[in-house]
Automatic annotation (TrEMBL):
GO terms for molecular function: transmembrane signaling receptor activity. GO terms for biological process: cell surface receptor signaling pathway; immune response. Residues 7-82 form the Ig-like domain. Transmembrane segments: none annotated. The lineage of its organism: Eukaryota, Metazoa, Chordata, Craniata, Vertebrata. The keyword rRNA-binding does not apply. It comes from Ptilonorhynchus violaceus (Satin bowerbird). It comes from the Eukaryota. Keywords: Disulfide bond, Signal. The keyword Disulfide bond applies. InterPro entries: Ig-like_dom, Ig-like_dom_sf, Ig-like_fold, Ig_Fc_receptor. One of its GO terms (cellular component) is external side of plasma membrane. This is FCGR3 protein. PANTHER family: FC RECEPTOR-LIKE PROTEIN 4 (PTHR11481:SF64), IMMUNOGLOBULIN FC RECEPTOR (PTHR11481).
Length: 109
């Protein structure tokens, strides 16, 4: 699929989180997937602001808390995703919500 264009006309890298809840917590068995242009194996991952050793793979299951982002060849860096390791969290769906929407909250610990 095609990535949406940013206002400047450059393609954007998308960082997808599964399961789609926010805040994102380590014990939810979180999978991060990087999508953007470029052939398979062109993904560079960043953890806590530094290039990280999972170069090449476009997805993985997170095993450490921290901040993550990714980059695909010919696209900009993705948004940053923070993975927490808090004992108790109140989570909401990680999607756009509009006034009047029914929202399911999760209190997890």
């Amino acid at each position: 699929g095609w990535c949406p264009l940013s206002p400047a006309g450059a393609q954007t890298t998308q960082l997808l989180v599964e399961p789609p809840w926010t805040p994102v917590v380590l014990w939810d068995r979180v999978t991060l997937t990087c999508q953007g242009s470029g052939s398979p194996g062109t993904t560079t991952w960043y953890k806590d602001g530094r290039q990280w050793g999972r170069k090449g793979s476009d997805h993985f299951v997170v095993t450490e808390r921290g901040t993550y982002k990714c980059e695909r060849r010919s696209t900009r860096l993705s948004r940053t995703v923070s993975i927490l390791d808090d004992r108790l969290v109140l989570q909401v769906p990680a999607r756009a919500l509009l006034e009047g929407d029914t929202v399911t909250l999760r209190c997890r610990g």
